Prior knowledge:
Blueprint (H helix, E strand, L loop, with lengths): L1 H14 L12 E2 L3 E4 L6 H7 L4 H7 L13 E4 L3 E2 L7 E5 L4 E5 L6 E4 L2 E2 L8 E10 L7 H6 L18 E5 L5 E3 L10 E3 L3 E2 L2 H10 L5 E5 L3 E6 L2 E6 L5 H8 L9 H11 L8 H10 L5 E5 L21 H20 L6 H6 L4 H12 L13
Parallel strand pairs: 5-14, 8-12, 11-13
Antiparallel strand pairs: 1-4, 2-3, 5-6, 6-7, 9-10, 9-14, 10-11, 15-16, 16-17
Helix pairs in contact: 1-5, 2-3, 7-9, 8-9
Amino acid sequence: MKFFVSLSLLLAFLLSPLAVQARDDAPYIGDQLEYRSKYEDTFVHLARDYKLGFVEMRAANPDVDPWLPGEGTTLTLPTRHIFPDAPHDGIVINLPEMRLYAFLEGKEPVTFPLGVGREGLETPTGTTKIVRKKEGPIWTPTPRMREDDPLLKESYGPGPDNPMGTHAMYLGWPQYAIHGTNRPFGIGRRVSSGCIRMYPEDIEVFFEMVPVGTKVTVVDQPIKLAWIEDKLFIEAHPNLEQAFEMEETAQISSSKLSDDDMERIIAAAGEYGDRIRWSAVRTAVRERKGIPVYIARRPGTEDLSAAEGEEEIDFELEQAELEKIKEEARGVLQDVYEGGDSMSEEVNGEAGVSEEQDDVQNAAFESEPHPMEDITLNP
Length: 379
């Protein structure tokens, strides 16, 4: 009987329109949606309905009251996700976006939102594996937890008071697990003591999908990049420190891009580094909406009708010029930190693109839409 119940849950998930799965070999999963809110909607409930987290909803809709969005308000549901830069092997968890990706043998990739460790009790990064699974886990609070809250019992068996929920998958790291929760409003927020929380309905399905021994990779990548057909996309999320600010105010007061992230952008563009739209990068990094936005195209893919009659552009660059672009990009991206707006003809000209040529690129760029327990645990 238990087998048939589990199979029914799995089939219901996979056939549901809300089941987020990848397409073929695409470097992303899901499609971005728009939603017209009802009077009774809140971000907490919409996030759960559409397999999102609270901070994801807040970041994508910064001008909307998360508790009273209002009747008929158009909301962005950020349900397209670029895969993190990690091997597609087993489970990949990206902490800043508070999201899990599963690349399981014989199955299409799937993704789920998560709750992760709060400040001072961060979820670790690195590689481990699922060492065992338990339905109806027992939670034993740590000595620190009992010191902080003397009312805690020594242990909690299965039931509504157990913060581990109904299912747990224990990691090779002592005191860490992927488990359910009795507080689903914490999904998509930094509220755990280090463990990785899932919605109750998600852990029930995922538990059946994942065998013991599955590899688990935890990364910290607030900036993700991917070529989708002929366009390079950036997906910028609040980093772990910014997540609290985004949750409270839907704004980021300081949005610095790390040198490593800048190098990754240039590396992802490759030979088309001269075609990066740094103004789009700057906006994505400042806003950190978690929505894929395209920032470059390969040559020959623009609709140049808006600039008909312009001279054909030569975008072939030698390696020395590419290195020069990297240095120029460092200066341009300083604007992100200082709040300037100087992606100028001077920079474009030095990279081999004239002011007129940049107008052609701009026209083409603007003509397109911008998408897309049996052990002590710290739950």
